[in-house]
Amino acid sequence: MSLALLSIIIIFAALVLFAIPRIPMSVTAILTMVVMGLTGIIDFKTAYAGFANSVIFLVAGMFIMGQALVKTGVAQRFGNALYKVVGTSERKFIVLTFVFSAILGLFTSGAVAVSILMPIADCLVLKSGNGEFTRKRTYMAIGLAGPLGNNLTLTGAASMITCAALAVEAGGRQMGMFEPTIVGLLALVVTVILYVTVIYKLSKKWLDYPDPPVEGDVSLVDTDSAEWKSAHPLWKQVVAFASMLGAIIAIIAGMDM
User: Fold this and answer.
1) In the chain, how many H helices and how many E strands?
2) What is the pLDDT at residue 219?
């Protein structure tokens, strides 16, 4: 059997396993890499080279910062402020999610927007307390908004940079920083319209499993209470927010992610 045919069989088997909910996706992904290495399709050094990619550390670091925003209370403050704007409308929050991701995606990776928005979504779920906001629906919107925001600039996504480099190697011209904006913005607008009209309604039918619970006490979302302020010192909030803001500014300034 040729290696090409064997690789197709392994990839197809992986797709089947990805579709089985009882099998964790991480297990399938690692198992696929191991089988690829054992069969000689790729060597083990190549198979696991991605774990040393700087993007891995960017994602890990940003999610640690996102958790810090929750632990220190910054996310709760943002959640309360946002709740005053969107009220009990989950759709309004989803629209703001796409707008925020688009703005942040002009300068940084989608992982940054996702790591900031996920803890805020959790706070809104706690704040509503009666199922008006759900993690399963808001997380899906956040996951879509991040990549779409990245596609607005040439440097927002790794795929954009790769395609631009390949175009130059093929004899084409170098693309400008904001050339993808017109197409990317159109895709973003169409996605938002489809999501808040058709997809949102379908998600209520399709995502019929119980909403994953948020770890935390609903009473702690009251940021004006003495109990909450005692549990979340202001200096910790300042440090957490300054760290996140500093990281965003550093990425915008062109420092290594």
Assistant:
1) 13, 0
2) 57
